[in-house]
Structure prediction request, 260 residues.
Amino acid sequence: MVLIPWVNLSLLSSAWVYAYILPNDGPVQKAIVSITHESSAEPSCLRLNPEVENGTLIDQLWRNNCDLVEQFLGNAFSVAQAEQTSTGTFTSFHYYSVQDYYYLLETVLHKPYLTETNPPMSEPSLRSSIPAVIDSTNKSFQDAENFRRSLINDLEISEDIIKNGTFHAAGLGYVKWLQENINLGWFAYQVSRIPCIYGWAELAKSLNNRQDVDHSSIFYQEWIVNNLDWNYGASHSQKLQKAVDRYNNSETFEVYNRLF
Prediction:
């Protein structure tokens, strides 16, 4: 089972600060700054994924916000789960996982909503894009369904608990934010997913490297092991790099500057 984590890092550390892209101001490595934290000239923040190149958007965000990265990699919930040194870790992992499923289900329709932010298309372009959106939506729903089955079969969570549970305020607030800011468009949404798609492999590797990690725990077997692959984050980085110049203009950089 691969646990797909919540996107919102503030649930685990403090807040993930986005940088912004300066309009028409040279390569991307000159365009990333921290909004609420001053970035050092030579950031020392360790980034382990060897498949994401230096100077990319993800690399700059990661290195220029080292204090947030350190809080994220050392968050108490994940460390306790990895080392199994606290009581109630299995129960809290169950709770986290069910909340994660609710998030996945709530956001299935987010991709179709994003199409409303696209510029007008020609008839051929519109016809060809609709099947892709439908396929993407179906895949998101299937991912949520597969995750639900994993909760029942792998974590042995009662189906009644899943049916009768409540999606709590932190997750609901984030989903509401996504819905209310749909106008930010596709690229902003992809940037918002960096902590999840890229960051979780960094977190898994960091936890796996801890001296006291418990290799026999359910958390290790079902979360750490399944999130050690670098490819997912590397693919996301490549996707962002292909599109970054298209969204690097005077109308968008202030929006990215205010994100998170």
